[in-house]
Design goal:
By secondary structure, the chain is an alpha+beta fold. It is 33% helix and 26% strand. Helix 1 packs across helix 3 and helix 2 (28-36) crosses helix 3 (43-51). The longest helix is centred in the last third of the chain and has 15 residues, at 125-139. The chain is globular. The termini are far apart.
Length: 193
């Protein structure tokens, strides 16, 4: 395996970003997108269009792609969380807990998505992406880095713990078609030293 390369995402990476967002979100993104898509638009095409936007959290401008041997192996979407004072009445119930958790780490560098395609897992690529997120957060002057993970994602939880993340707060994760019943969303954070 050649040395992995992490580069800024480009608009043409949008289809990979949509796929990686859905992998990291354990199917919740496609579930949400199917209700947001225009008539005749597939959920994945809706996600691709969102990734191509110039603004927002989920945009190629906040993303980095990880390449192995010239192929996309994974990706990272991360950014500084501004002061979060949302009117939660407009937030869909399926994601309200996520927004509540994000509000607890205003000013932190937030890892919205870190994902590696299944065929590239077990090679330390997730660790490379998380290290890159820490570097971006330090460069942005953030005090720390935060991420949210589902309680049932044992592999990701082990990875984040090894990377120095600790539990800050929890919220129940709502059940949804294809979701795992009885899970929680766990907000993890670590400070930059």
């Amino acid at each position: 395996m050649a040395e992995p390369i992490i580069r800024k995402a480009r608009q043409e990476d949008a289809v990979h970003l949509a796929a990686l967002v859905d992998i990291a979100g354990e199917g919740l993104p496609v579930h949400l997108w199917q209700h947001m898509a225009a008539e005749g638009q597939s959920p994945v095409e809706f996600g691709r269009a969102r990734a191509m936007r110039e603004e927002g959290g989920f945009t190629y401008r906040n993303a980095h792609m990880l390449e192995v041997d010239g192929e996309i192996a994974g990706g990272l979407i991360s950014y500084r969380l501004g002061d979060q004072d949302h009117d939660l009445s407009d937030v869909p119930p399926l994601v309200r807990g996520l927004v509540e958790l994000e509000m607890e780490v205003s000013g932190y560098w937030y890892v919205n998505v870190v994902a590696v395609y299944p065929e590239y897992r077990g090679r330390g690529l997730g660790t490379l992406l998380l290290d890159h997120a820490d570097t971006l957060g330090r460069e942005a002057g953030c005090d720390g880095t935060a991420i949210i993970v589902a309680s049932g994602n044992a592999g990701a939880n082990r990875l984040y713990e090894r990377q120095g993340y600790r539990t800050v707060a929890r919220r129940p994760a709502p059940d949804y078609l294809g979701g795992r019943a009885g899970q929680e969303w766990i907000l993890l954070a670590k400070t930059h030293s």
